[in-house]
């Protein structure tokens, strides 16, 4: 099975688009996760047969005996990982960490064999989770596994905390508890219409009955979280989908540690998120999917992450049927905080382009850019009828 998945990856996978990033079929394997699935299948096969995959020798230099030793270590690490790797990046990090004392060429060959990211392509992230509550934290939460549908963009997420949690158990309204009990009884009697009505009552009160992977049902309280210290494009804005998808990759299916500092004007908890010891905001910044919200957050560790060369892009509509009434924007690239950070734009025509008034700028998108010279970029998005 592992060899078949690798063949599928090598022969059939094209660069991912939004349309083909989903499942390739009923098996649930996507083009983005086929290497992870192949590795998982080979580890399972190794536990049964003690045989390493055919063809691996073409990618590595060590003997079959050494390869068997790798798979033994990886199998143990895979079982101990909670949850096990789901993305190519997570699988690559597990392989690199587990085989850290082995030859670099062999580790890279193994990663290439499964189509996983090589070490130099992975963004380094710190795994130092605070052992004591930082100053300003009002309370802490441990969430249930996160659903991808609860992530609308790159800086907002909806989480659920079990009502059995010591902090929550004393706050659950009596009518919610009663509705949950009655719902369970209605489902046992296959009265699904009544059960759905009772569940809607629970949802309206800010709670929900969550189905866990082990088929257990848990009453949980809903919290809307605004990631503290970063700002990402809305999902409808340029690069908004990329930011949303990156946050989904980091937290989907995982339990989070949430440190809440306060509440914003929309009723969301402003919080830091930690996922398996990784600081989520730091990852979003390092991957260029968000920028430091310095107007509301002065933490030096986040400012340090963003203290690099950034590319500022102004995006606006360009009417291909009326090119003479549109103008081009030139934006310099420079270090954050330097005099080169300022940028210039021409007047915007027509005046209603992307809802802007004449000469009004949209908020720029920040993306990592290598180099230290000031350059200019012309950025156009074509829209309208051809």
Number of helices: 11
Counted beta strands: 16
Average pLDDT works out at: 76
Q: What portion of the residues fall into strands of 2 or more residues?
A: 15-25%
* Helical content band: 25-40%
CATH architecture of the largest domain: Beta Barrel
pLDDT < 50 runs, ≥5 residues: 7-29, 308-386
N-C termini distance:
47 Å
Task: Please provide the ordered H/E string of secondary-structure elements.
Answer: HHHHHEEHHHEEEHEEEHEHEEEEEEE
Radius of gyration: 25 Å
Which structural category do the helix and sheet elements fall into?
alpha+beta
Bulk shape: globular
Q: Can you put this structure into words, describing what you see?
A:
The protein is of the alpha+beta class and 386 residues long. The protein has three domains: 2-121, no CATH class; 139-306, OB fold (Dihydrolipoamide Acetyltransferase, E2P) (Beta Barrel); 309-383, no CATH class. The chain contains eleven helices and 16 strands. It has helices at 2-12, 34-49, 64-80, 88-98, 104-113, 166-169, 174-188, 192-204, 240-251, 280-286, 300-306, and strands at 139-142, 156-162, 207-211, 217-227, 230-231, 256-263, 269-275, 278-279, 291-292, 309-313, 317-319, 330-332, 334-335, 365-368, 376-378, 381-383. The strands form five sheets. Strands 1, 2, 3, 4, 6, 7 and 8 form a seven-stranded mixed beta sheet that branches. A three-stranded antiparallel beta sheet has the order 13-10-14, with no helix packed on it. The chain is globular, with a radius of gyration of 25 Å.
């Amino acid at each position: 099975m592992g060899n078949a998945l690798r063949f599928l990856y090598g022969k059939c996978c094209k660069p991912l688009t939004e349309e083909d990033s989903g499942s390739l079929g009923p098996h649930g394997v996507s083009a983005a996760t086929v290497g992870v699935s192949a590795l998982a299948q080979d580890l399972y096969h190794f536990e049964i047969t003690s045989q390493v995959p055919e063809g691996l020798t073409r990618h590595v230099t060590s003997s079959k005996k050494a390869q068997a030793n790798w798979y033994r270590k990886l199998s143990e690490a895979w079982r101990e990982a909670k949850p096990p790797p789901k993305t190519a990046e997570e699988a690559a990090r597990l392989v690199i960490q587990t085989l850290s004392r082995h030859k670099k060429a062999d580790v890279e060959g193994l990663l290439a064999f499964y189509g996983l990211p090589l070490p130099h392509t992975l963004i380094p992230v710190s795994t130092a989770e605070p052992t004591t509550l930082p100053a300003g934290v009002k309370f802490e939460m441990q969430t249930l596994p996160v659903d991808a549908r609860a992530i609308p963009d790159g800086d907002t997420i909806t989480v659920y905390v079990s009502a059995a949690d010591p902090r929550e158990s004393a706050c659950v309204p009596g009518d919610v508890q009663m509705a949950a009990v009655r719902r369970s009884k209605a489902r046992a009697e296959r009265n699904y219409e009544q059960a759905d009505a009772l569940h809607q009552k629970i949802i309206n009160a800010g709670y929900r009955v969550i189905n866990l992977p082990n088929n257990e049902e848990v009453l949980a309280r809903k919290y809307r979280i605004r990631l503290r210290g970063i700002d990402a494009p809305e999902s409808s804005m340029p690069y908004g989908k990329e930011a949303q998808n990156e946050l989904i990759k980091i937290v989907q299916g995982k339990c989070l540690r949430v440190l809440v500092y306060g509440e914003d004007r929309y009723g969301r908890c402003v919080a830091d998120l930690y996922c398996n010891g990784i600081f989520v905001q730091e990852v979003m910044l390092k991957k260029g999917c968000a920028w430091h919200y310095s107007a509301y957050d002065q933490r030096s560790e986040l400012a340090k992450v963003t203290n690099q060369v950034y590319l500022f892009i102004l995006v606006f509509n360009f009417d291909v049927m009326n090119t003479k009434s549109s103008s081009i924007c030139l934006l310099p690239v420079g270090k954050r905080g330097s005099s080169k950070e300022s940028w210039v734009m021409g007047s915007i025509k027509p005046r209603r382009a992307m809802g802007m008034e004449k000469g009004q700028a949209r908020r720029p998108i920040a993306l990592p850019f290598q180099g230290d010279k000031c350059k200019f970029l012309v950025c156009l998005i074509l829209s309208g009828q051809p």
